[in-house]
Structure formats: structure tokens, C-alpha cells
Amino acid sequence: MCGSPLGGEATAHDDASATLFKLPTRAGEEGPTEILGDSASASVSTSSQLTRQLSPARRRRAALKRPIDSLAVLPLANGAEDPQAEYLSDGITESIINALSQLPKLRVVPRTTVFRYKGRGDDPVAVGRELDVRAVMTGRMLQIGDLLVISAELVDVAMESQIWGEQYRHRLEDIFVLQERISREISERLRLRLTGEEKRRLEKRYTENTAAYQLYLRGRYCLNKRSTEWIRRGIEHFQQAIDLDPAYALA
Hints:
The chain is α/β, with parallel strands linked by helices.
């Protein structure tokens, strides 16, 4: 008769199926369950290895999204090495430090600490690790007549990479705009979400008189020399600033 029997004698196919799916009967003999179990374990192990390999990349992407909450602003280098312009490079550095220090979400290393690195040309990553901050700003200022040219860059200490770099060209009479631009762009590159009040703090001016402000910067520069003669000169500059703007509280 044609066709496979529905009952009765077992066929060769039945024997083969029974052999394939029978449970092990002798010690040490592996059946399908053990084989499948080993394969599953190998798959999980491979998956775990891939996850571990991807973890640094994932951590890097996550770090690039998080706000940077600590910063050191190193003194701007005096590009022309002109002593007459040093009060400006130091003063603009101080202004940026003071402005960013107003932000409660950001820890800024104070002036007295960062100015120890003035003129040393240290690696910003090494400085950042020494000061325990996540970012370091470095820069150079060049004065050409009435024109100020400032090159600045921001370095991510953990990633050892540059976050941002920019060159600014402003007339000396626009020094307030220059300082505000730098402070604002740093806060943006640090991925800080500022409130309206915090943005206004970055743009706060204590005088609108740029001549008075320059005299104030000269006075600060002299005071930081910490000698009797320099302090006397500093007080003279402060008095001249007040003469130009009697409402100038800082002077």
C-alpha cells in the first residue's frame, strides 16, 4: 500500500526522530537541552563583551551632553609682550572670571589661584587636573593701536580635546561688548542653562564710560603689584576714574 502508516510498525523516519530528540541515558552524554544551553550562554557572553566594548563610547556621548560645572580661566597672554598693554590682558581676564563667578551652577577658580600660571605656558589639561576642574580657558590678546584682537579656546580636561575656539576683533571703545561676548559664549559652550537673571548678570556693567573703566583696570593692575609705589599709582588711577564717572562704585 502507498502512504505512511498511521499506526503499527515504526518507520525509519520515526526511528531517526526518536534518536534525535531522546534524552541522554548515559552519564556524560549531552542532549539537545545541554547543547542549546551552551549556545545561549555563549551568546550572552558575546553580547556582554560587545556591551563592555561600547561602554566607553556611550560614556563619552553622555559626557558630551552633560553641563560642565567647573572652570579655570587662565590669564590671557600679552601677544605683543608690551608692558603698556598688560593691564588690559590682565583686566579682561579678571572681568571674565568675575562675570562667570556670578553663575551658581558653575565653580570658577579664583583669580589669585589662576594667576600663578601667568606666563608659564602650561598644558591646559595638566592645569585642569591640578586644579580639579572639567574645563580650562586659555587665550592671547594683541593690541594694535585702538584695536584689540583676542584668541580664546576652551579645553575639556577629561576628554583632552578642544570644545571651542574663537577670535574676536573689537575697538577698545567696545571693550564691554568684547568681554560680554566671551563670557556668554563660554557659558554656552559649557552647556549651562541660564535663567534670564543669570544672563543679565553676565552683562552687568558698573559704568558705561570706557575711559573710566580703563583707568579702573590700570588701578587694579597697580594694586596687584603689591608695593607702596604701585599702590599709590593705583589709587591715583581710581581717583581719575571717579572724576570721569562719579557714580562708578567699583573705583
